[in-house]
């Protein structure tokens, strides 16, 4: 487990809070709970002062996030924080978590060795539950090639802005490490599915990787796709319709930024990452 997993609990969590009583001032659980709230307060302060492009997104309020302690998922009863990545349900008051309606249905092809707890694509399922489904590779459905596109920068892929969007009903994304994508692309049910690509973008992802700054986290790719899709069908106009796809991503980005600035945690740091 790397330093970021320690920070996020390996599950986008901070640190474990047990079910022990919290009315004792000397109770370590209460102290840990208060520490978590303090950390979250620092995150909210970092969000207010953030100067990255994420600060320009039209996002729902994060204020309730500072009150979220680790709790049992209402469906599976496992301890989680912020959301349950198994059930794809938000923690706390669900009315305070943004809910999106996407213009296309989404399939995420998940490679089985990828830890679902580290998946950023899970954010899209939590936030747009009615439109996003996860498919565990190699269980790839048979797709209608005329109505389906796959986001992948293959040699013959075209840009989102250049496709005819009128017949498209589904977009497929891949959730795997780069070296496993060829295995997914070789699946016979993807043979006739057209590949599309987005404009070159720089990642804001906090995990250290060796591929370069243009290799995006999956949720970044999903966001940029829908932003460009909206621009393609509305003569270039975009008014933040799908910004909340980056709701959890932005919160965790600021959590990491806050940790860089305020903690002594030991983890592999990305050069020039502090904003």
UniProtKB/TrEMBL annotation:
Keyword flag Nucleus: yes
Domain DTW: 80-261
Swiss-Prot/TrEMBL keywords: Nucleus, S-adenosyl-L-methionine, Transferase, tRNA processing
Gene Ontology BP annotations: tRNA processing
Domain of life, source organism: Eukaryota
Entry EC no(s): 2.5.1.25
Reactions mediated catalytically: a uridine in tRNA + S-adenosyl-L-methionine = a 3-[(3S)-3-amino-3-carboxypropyl]uridine in tRNA + S-methyl-5'-thioadenosine + H(+)
Keyword Cell membrane tagged: no
GO molecular function, one term: tRNA-uridine aminocarboxypropyltransferase activity
GO cellular component: a single term: nucleus
Short name of any one Pfam family annotated for the protein: DTW
Subcellular location: Nucleus
Chief localisation class: nucleus
Reported function: Catalyzes the formation of 3-(3-amino-3-carboxypropyl)uridine (acp3U) at position 20 in the D-loop of several cytoplasmic tRNAs (acp3U(20)).
PANTHER family according to UniProt: NATURAL KILLER CELL-SPECIFIC ANTIGEN KLIP1, TRNA-URIDINE AMINOCARBOXYPROPYLTRANSFERASE 1
Family membership noted in the UniProt record: Belongs to the TDD superfamily. DTWD1 family.
Name used for this protein in its record: tRNA-uridine aminocarboxypropyltransferase 1
Species whose genome carries this gene: Polysphondylium violaceum
């Amino acid at each position: 487990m790397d330093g970021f997993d320690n920070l996020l609990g390996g599950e986008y969590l901070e640190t474990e809070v047990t079910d022990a009583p919290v009315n004792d001032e000397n109770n370590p659980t209460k102290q840990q709970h208060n520490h978590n709230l303090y950390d979250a307060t620092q995150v909210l302060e970092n969000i207010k002062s953030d100067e990255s492009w994420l600060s320009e997104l039209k996002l729902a309020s994060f204020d309730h996030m500072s009150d979220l302690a680790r709790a049992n998922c209402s469906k599976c009863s496992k301890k989680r924080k912020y959301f349950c990545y198994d059930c794809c349900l938000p923690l706390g008051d669900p009315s305070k978590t943004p809910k999106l309606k996407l213009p296309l249905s989404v399939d995420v092809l998940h490679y089985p060795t990828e830890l679902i707890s580290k998946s950023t694509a899970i954010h899209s399922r939590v936030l747009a539950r009615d439109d996003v489904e996860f498919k565990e590779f190699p269980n790839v459905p048979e797709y209608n090639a005329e109505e389906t596109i796959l986001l992948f920068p293959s040699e013959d892929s075209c840009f989102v802005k250049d496709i005819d969007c009128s017949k498209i009903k589904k977009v497929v994304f891949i959730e795997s490490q780069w070296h496993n994508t060829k295995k997914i692309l070789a699946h016979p049910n993807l043979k006739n599915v057209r590949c599309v690509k987005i404009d070159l973008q720089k990642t804001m992802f906090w995990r250290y990787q060796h591929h370069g700054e243009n290799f995006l986290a999956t949720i970044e790719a999903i966001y940029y796709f829908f932003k460009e899709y909206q621009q393609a069908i509305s003569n270039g106009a975009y008014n933040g319709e799908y910004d909340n796809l980056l709701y959890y991503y932005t919160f965790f980005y600021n959590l990491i930024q806050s940790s860089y600035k305020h903690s002594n945690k030991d983890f592999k740091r990305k050069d020039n990452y502090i904003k």
